[in-house]
Design a protein that fits this description.
InterPro entries: DUF2157 (IPR018677). By secondary structure, the chain is mainly alpha-helical. It is built from 17 helices and no strands. Among the domains are: 31 residues, no CATH class; 58 residues. It is flat.
Length: 432
């Protein structure tokens, strides 16, 4: 709960008799006033001092003796780790983890500068792999979200270097990110870490497709494997967060297919061999369904609508209609699930997806042969009908609540009636 919210609203609660002044003081004591700016100042000061020192060293780097260069690299590295450990012991995790992260960055810089110092020509990524290993190890030791983020970025940078400069794919780097940080995520599935890890794994998968010169649709096999891992995660929020980047990638692909898929020129780019592709995707689908059933999440199965291989259809009107049907069906499934779970955030997302599908339908199917005013009329009627249906469903759920309570043997209590309990009256006031 926000301290600012308590400071603003709690006097009104006392005035309305919801809580006493003593209880208000207890709430304020439970959520003390914080000063984020005070915690931020040391971090900013350390960054500025560090940048100043790096600027001086960089300007005179070529003129420094070799021994002094190595001493500076080692001192900066050890100093960052020592300072980070000191602040962690003093109970300042933000600054401590920030300095540990700075040490991790300096470790990679030291590897690169040392190779340049001794004119070492790197034909492999063995030195940079040590950087990824250090990041994974530090993530486990300190359990820091910042270190996980840095390690994912370092893994992406190392893999990009391998692909662009060496023309190879480092399977060891990919395994360190997928296996090392994947196990870390399984044990600590926080939402932000799930987003970061999924995005990093998608980057690794995309680079693998580039190196193998495979059809780009093979990208969705490892992508949906990441999605299936989210189905098996016991933590619902962490699992769903891991699934968001794969779903975004699948939706953007289907959306692009709806817009640009009229011509059949994409056949050589998108169409892999039918049976191997469907077999691999079907195996991942079976794994996902098993996870959904085990965790009681079968309601999210319509997410797989975005993976229907419509690109095997010939280009033209048939493909445009098929992709639009998929987009509408997916938007409808999101709206239905949001209405059932009373989730306003998902309801907003579903409405946006519905409007996006309608916009594509307008520009692709109706621009040339349907009057624009007629199309807007039809679109408005659809949206109004959808709004009416959702409101009607909500009213039915609310009307059924007292009946369910009576069937369970508990009399329905109406708030603010003379016989209603005081707690119920307070709840009604809060809802109002």
């Amino acid at each position: 709960m926000s301290r600012k919210f308590l400071d603003t609203e709690s006097p009104g609660w006392v005035t309305d008799g919801l809580i006493s002044e003593a209880q208000r003081q207890q709430l304020l004591a439970r959520y003390p006033q914080q000063a984020p700016a005070l915690g931020l100042l040391p971090i900013l000061g350390s960054v500025l001092v560090g940048l100043s020192g790096l600027s001086v060293v960089a300007a005179n780097w070529q003129g420094l003796p070799t021994a002094l260069r190595l001493a500076l690299l080692l001192a900066s590295l050890m100093g960052s780790y020592a300072a980070g450990s000191y602040f962690l012991r003093r109970g300042n995790p933000d600054l401590g983890h920030g300095l540990i992260g700075l040490g991790l960055i300096l470790f990679g810089a030291s590897i690169i500068l040392t190779s340049q110092l001794y004119q070492l020509v790197g034909y492999d990524a063995s030195g940079l792999l040590a950087w990824v290993v250090a990041g994974v190890g530090l993530s486990y030791v300190y359990g820091s979200r910042l270190l996980v983020l840095l390690t994912v970025l370092i893994g992406a940078a190392v893999q990009t270097y391998c692909v662009e400069s060496l023309g190879i794919f480092s399977y060891v780097t990919a395994w360190l990110i997928a296996g090392g940080l994947g196990y870390y995520w399984w044990r600590r599935p926080d939402v932000v870490g799930s987003y970061v890890l999924a995005a990093g794994l998608l980057w690794q998968a995309g680079l693998l497709i580039i190196v193998l010169h495979a059809k780009i649709t093979w990208f969705f096999v490892p992508t949906m494997l990441i999605y299936a891992a989210g189905d098996w995660q016991p933590n619902r929020l962490g699992g769903r967060a891991l699934q968001v980047p794969p779903l975004v990638a699948a939706y953007l692909f289907m959306f692009g297919l709806a817009i640009f898929g009229e011509a059949d020129a994409y056949a050589n780019v998108l169409r892999p061999p039918l049976l191997p592709y469907l077999g691999a995707l079907g195996a991942v689908l079976a794994l996902s369904v098993a996870g959904k059933r085990a965790r009681g999440r079968l309601a999210s199965l319509p997410d797989w609508l975005l993976l229907l291989p419509g690109f095997y259809l010939s280009g033209g009107l048939s493909l445009a209609v098929a992709t639009l049907v998929v987009l509408y069906a997916h938007a409808g499934s999101v709206l239905t699930r949001a209405n059932r779970d009373h989730d306003p955030e998902q309801l907003t997302i579903g409405a946006v997806l519905f409007v996006a599908a309608t916009a594509v339908a307008y520009f692709k199917l109706t621009w040339g042969f349907m009057d624009k005013s007629l199309f807007f009329l039809i679109g408005g009627i659809l949206l109004l009908g959808l709004s009416w249906y959702l409101r009607r469903r909500n009213a039915q759920v609310l009307a059924a609540s007292p009946a369910v309570a009576q069937q369970a043997g508990t009399p329905a209590v109406i708030a603010n009636e003379p016989g209603a309990p005081e707690s119920t009256q307070h709840s009604s006031l809060l809802n109002d």
